[in-house]
Amino acid sequence: MEKQEQEQEQWQGAVETRLPSTPAAAAWPHIADFFALHRYLPTMDVCKPVDGSDEVRPGCVRYCAFFAPGTEEVATWAREELVELHQALVHLEPPRPPP
């Protein structure tokens, strides 16, 4: 495997969790706001769109950073692209019986 392919593979990932007592309609606005990660990770200092647009859509990119303690010097950062957004899965309704 080439070095570039190894690096790309290293940084791919996904996050999934179950919230059995939380209705999807209550959770979705928080999960779907790709640029609001800092609201849920209070140690994150920056989470902002890279292209200047705050429209959440597949292909948008965010920059997230953590500062070194007591400074505004970036200690850790990430540039992340939203690959998929499955809003349709949130609005599933049970099948209706035929008339």
Walk me through this protein's architecture.
- The protein is an alpha+beta fold and 99 residues long.
- The protein has a domain at 44-87.
- The protein has four helices and three strands; from the N terminus they run H-H-H-E-E-E-H.
- It has a three-stranded antiparallel β-sheet with strand order 1-2-3, with no helix packed on it.
- It is globular.
**Rg on CA atoms, Å:** 18 Å
What level of helicity do the residues show? 25-40%
Q: What percent strand?
A: 15-25%
Shape: globular
Q: Order of strands across the biggest sheet? A: 1-2-3
User: Which structural category fits the helices and strands?
Assistant: alpha+beta
Instruction: Write down the oligomeric state.
Output: single chain
Task: Give the SSE string.
Answer: HHHEEEH
**What's the average pLDDT?**
78
Taking the sheet with the most strands, its summary is:
3 strands, antiparallel
Q: Tell me the total number of β-strands.
A: 3
Low-confidence stretches: 91-95
Subcellular location: Nucleus
Main location: nucleus
Pfam families: Polyketide_cyc2
GO cellular component, one term: nucleus
Q: Main attributes?
A:
single chain, 99 residues, alpha+beta, 3-stranded antiparallel beta sheet, 4 helices, 25% helix, START-like_dom_sf
